[in-house]
Amino acid sequence: MSVVSMSAETLAAAAEQIPSGFVVIMGMGIVFVGLVCIVLLCSIMSKVVRILEKITSVSEPAAASAPASAPAPVIVPAAEPIANRQELVAAVSAALAEELGTDVSAIRILSLKKV
Question: Which residue among 8, 38, 65, 87 is least enclosed by CB atoms within 10 Å?
Answer without folding.
Answer: 65
